[in-house]
Amino acid sequence: QSTWGALSKFRMQGQRPSSAVVDEQRRKVLKPVVDVSEVPALAAAIFGLSDVDAGSVTSLESYDDRNFKLSAVRPGGDVRETFVFKVHNGVATREFVAAQNAAMVHLASSGVRCPAPVPLAGAATEHIGEITRTASGGEQCVHLVRLLSWLEGPLLCSVREPSQALLHSAGAFVGRMSASFASFDVPATHRDHLWDLANLPLLRAFLDAVPTPERRLKAHRVLQRFELEVAPLLAALPQSVLHNDANDWNLVLGLESEGAGEQVAGVIDFGDIVFSCRVFEPAIAVCYFMLGKSDPIAAGRAALGGFLSVVELDPRERGLLHTLVCSRLCQSVVMSAYSSSLDPTNEYLKTTSEPGWAVLDVLL
């Protein structure tokens, strides 16, 4: 599978590829190349951190960016803190990264726990720096960088078989996030993004990466169902900014020491935020909460019940949920196959693959 295979398919068919497809293609060749050993000096120079513990710097899993966990002291401070030093993919624009910061600040102001952006050295109102590197595909590239506060607590994915109560809590947390986003909007979230479920038909450009004809046929059936049932209603559905990736790797549990260990208490990773249909948010969350569960239907039902305890969906939205859950599963497994074909050593890219196909088998 060529890196530019999907674009070539559009050209052969005489179509102009969507900017969402182009961006997804370019993300694969504009991944930042940064070594762990560089991070202490970069964090000190850009964000003014002192006493950076080089031994504490560790690389974190990421889709297309580079994330590093580190321990250091803020400028003028005397308390050691934990941070995430984030180097963005070369596709990310300053406007969109600023929108991520604004989304986190907005959620925090309404009581939704999430990371906080740290200002640049000597610039209290600026939170986005930049570095120039040769990206993964060999192209010289400017990468935006941020420093975020570390959100303490285990990830929801650390619980192998979460209780119904914990899944209900996860759904309710996503509901609170959705309710908060109802009063938030910035222009950069109105974008053409491949991971916006409204763009599901664009997935056809990547179907060749799915290794078996049986699975390609299953994905094709989901696409047809979306176009028949969902696409005609898109313009009429309630719209909002979405986190758009509320999976169990992005939700943080409360701390046992605070008596909140059986509750979801925080959210990370705002790289997929987009303005789109409100109902996509619970469908995406339910899709991921079903993966790898002994009873995926019960897990999805518990999570959806939590969301609906906070946000009331209208009858049209409720009627689309089953198709939308299948649609996100399809989106996830197809793009996992595509990304893995380009980066076969990245195990994180395969997280949802086999569990996703298994849940699709149950739902279809």
Question: Can you give a write-up of this model?
Answer:
- With 364 residues, the chain is α+β, with helices and mostly antiparallel strands.
- The chain is built from ten helices and nine strands.
- The protein has helices at 5-12, 19-29, 39-47, 94-109, 164-181, 213-229, 280-290, 296-308, 315-342, 353-363, and strands spanning 58-60, 66-73, 80-87, 129-134, 140-149, 239-242, 251-253, 264-267, 274-277.
- The strands form three sheets. Strands 1-2-3-5-4 form a five-stranded antiparallel β-sheet, with helices on one face. A two-stranded antiparallel ribbon has the order 6-9.
- A hairpin with a 5-residue loop joins strand 1 (58-60) and strand 2.
- The two termini are 28 Å apart.
- Mean pLDDT is 91; it is low at 1-14.
Secondary structure layout plus pairing:
Layout: H1 5-12, H2 19-29, H3 39-47, E1 58-60, E2 66-73, E3 80-87, H4 94-109, E4 129-134, E5 140-149, H5 164-181, H6 213-229, E6 239-242, E7 251-253, E8 264-267, E9 274-277, H7 280-290, H8 296-308, H9 315-342, H10 353-363
Helix pairs in contact: 5-7, 5-8, 6-9, 7-8, 7-9, 9-10
What's the short story on this structure?
By secondary structure, this protein is of the alpha+beta class. Helix content is 39%, strand content 14%. The chain is built from 10 helices and 9 strands.
